[in-house]
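Protein 1 of 2
SEQ + STRUCT:
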Amino acid sequence: MSAAVLWTCLLPPVEESVYFHTPATLFTETSQLHPVPTHQKKWGSVVKAIWCDFRTAFSQVEIIKWSVWWILGMGGYISVITYNQILWSTLNKEDPVNNRLMNGAVDAIFPLAGAVSTFTIGKVSLHWTRWGELMLAAGTLIQGILLVITSTSTSLVLVYFYYIVFGCIHYTMLTIASSEIAKYLKRESFALVFGFNKFVALLGVSLFTLYKVQLVNTPTRELYLIFGVYFISIGLIYFAASLYRTMKAITELPTSV
């Protein structure tokens, strides 16, 4: 952490940015192809430009669809990995002979498996606009089922396995969602939209943590059951949306006379 902070301090300053340190003439959709002198760039115009880009991005149904999953999926993922060490320790205490801790090895395998799954899905050619909702539904349902099984499992080895599979599915779907969001964005809005999505996800996690710590004391197993129901609910919603889109497309097909 200290090395990262030191390295950050040694980086050269940013001379230009989209909203606050724009070049003398910046031609963007927001400025409607008119020069925007840097010295005239006031806070009011910055806020207006940010709001314009935000409204333009989130007025598109596809961005909303993928962003909603991105926020919900990321929030659930962060919550799961926050409490996994507690669950592993609980299983170890229940049966220290058969449930030996291998947290370090699992945490090392976890990102590697996620990287492999992400690389693999990048090689798949699929019409994500058509099949994306169904893929999100299937993946999220599997995640939820894995978490429900985890909440009842007594084998730490199996829990480790479920955790790695859960992470692979998350990284895969997060990659798909991110690429689909980026497909409909202009380049200047990438940081704005993804930053907003991450902020909302972290806000939700913070509120949930505050609720758990201050108001309730849910056992870890029950907590994972709640996480499982949460992911299953998201999966069912996206499955219903996919089914609705499919039925609507079928009814709109021209009928032969």
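Protein 2 of 2
SEQ + STRUCT:
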Amino acid sequence: MADPPAPCVTAAELPRPPDLAIHFLGPTQVHRGGTLLAPWPNRRVKSLFKYLVMHRGRPAPKELLMDRFWPEARADAARNSLNVAVHGLRRFLRAGDDGVNHVLFNEDCYALNPMVSLWVDVEEFERKVSAGCRGDHGIAVADALQEAAALYRGPLFEDEPYEEWSAGSRRRLQEAYVDVLERLCNHHLAAGDHAACADAGRKILALEPAHEKAHAALMRCFARQGRYSRAHRQYQDCVGELRAGLNLPPSELTNQLFARIRAREPV
């Protein structure tokens, strides 16, 4: 039977609740005092906020923002559009007129107010990934990996996946998530938790159908349960996905694993 999901650290569980709780993995959401801030004034306000959060600690020059979000506009038009977007963002984040200026402007640069405390799921995810990758075994490591997996609700900025500036971060975070799932898959396989192993393996293949190690882990998982026909089908799935996605045959290790499964040898 699969273990229940490990509890992840949420904004509400912190010693002092943050001023803003921000979810970027999956649909973009911002909570203030437990209340979802919605709807966004417009797409540019949302994009500006995402950029400032993802680059916080590094003030963004106004020219950079103008070029990033209004590349085709004349300088004066882009400057006006940026001013309008910043004003809209300040009003959106204020949500209750607490008097706090969430977006600061200094020396021709914009930045989020460092006095406003933030909880950002991307940052928490990366902390958990780091903790889970410090070793290969142990309850603490597995718990950190479970918590990281629970935080990953979907790709970065899932509701707006086509912004070029975030493409590299989106790929990096998905690769980290797949690595987390691979580690969890191996952990559950070693622990004999076949349901949890299969769940992690299937999640990997949903993102990367030609992930050979995930196919191999599922083959082992099914064979150890005596589900040899299912293990055979998994091998055939592996062959097909590798051919379709990479134009490659299975590795010698995978072929040897399949031969042992066919011979009903321990795997």
